[in-house]
Amino acid sequence: FVLWGGVLGDRVRSRFRLVCVTETAAAAIWAALAVLFAQGGPVGWIAVLAALGGVTRGLFSPALEGVVVDVVPEQDQRQQANAMLKVSVNTARLMGMMLAGVVVSVVGPALALALDAASFAACAVLFGVLGRSIPDRPVRYKASAVRDLREGWREFVRHEWLWVTTSQLTIVIAVVNSVAGLLGPMLAKVYLGGAWAWSLVMVAQIAGQIGGAGWAGRLRPARPMLVATLCTAGAALPALLLSLRAPLLVVLVGAAVYGVMWDVTMVMWRTCLQREVPDDMISRVSSIDLLGCLAVAPIALAVAGPLASAFGPAWVALASALLVLVAVACALASRDIRTLAGDPRPQQETAPVAAGAA
After folding, report:
1. For 12-48, b where at least 16 C-beta lie within 10 A, e where not — what string?
2. How many helices (H) and strands (E) does the chain have?
3. Is there a smaller number of Cβ atoms within 10 Å at the N or the C end of the chain?
């Protein structure tokens, strides 16, 4: 549903109203999940509601990319806006990780899910208030969603740095998810001390991301995508250190460094995307990128388990780290990645080209 979310994000007159709808739907879904958990509801219905929750995320994420553009029309301020957004999101993630266990153990999972539903409802209200000060966009409705998506695809492939980065992140995110969701916990159980140690690693990573996002807001590199691509190599650090059975303190430092580098990558990439892609196509292009980045992640998780059982988690983690470095090296072979300038380009330069392609 992320591609349809991209089409909707560029079609609607107000992305804020679209986000309000998705967040309200998410609030209802999580409230229903809370009721099911309280009553010991069947797993099948829980799975259905979880899938519907995923649909709301697929519609929300591309629209959010456009919301940033609508709120911050000045291109020279978007890097700081993206950095501020990443800092706030990562701070919330850190607080959530620290509070989640306490809330579940004290009040139980049903009430914890109800609080989650309330947070989505609050988010819908906040977006609604923010949207009041932003005028509706003059949207020209297209003949079909398929045509809209085709236009988004043409714009996506027109930028070599964009589709190269997406291809690279397809591999990197698959590795990151496999390490965070499976290989890391397995190795933590084997030699670091178990769940408490892995939770410290995750906290160190998010703390690094908060610092990295704040730092990225002040960076002004002449070649932002070159910096972003080089920083992506930091994703190999946790897997490499775990495969070598490094001490916990070293793994914590590595996770923090990776967090810093990862959010520098994300801020630089998002800023370039918002600068180089016309505003009226930003949601569609970002939805295609998001689908590409996440497409292999479930497959990687499914494959990592059997491979870890056959060869051991340490060897699979080492291979994963090397795979990240290979992906980064391949991305650096792109001249567009190495030379894309950091100076803002007026939207007028890109819009006529996009219109001609359409």
Report:
1. bebbbebbbbbbbbbbbbbbbbbebbeeeeeeeeeee
2. 17, 0
3. C
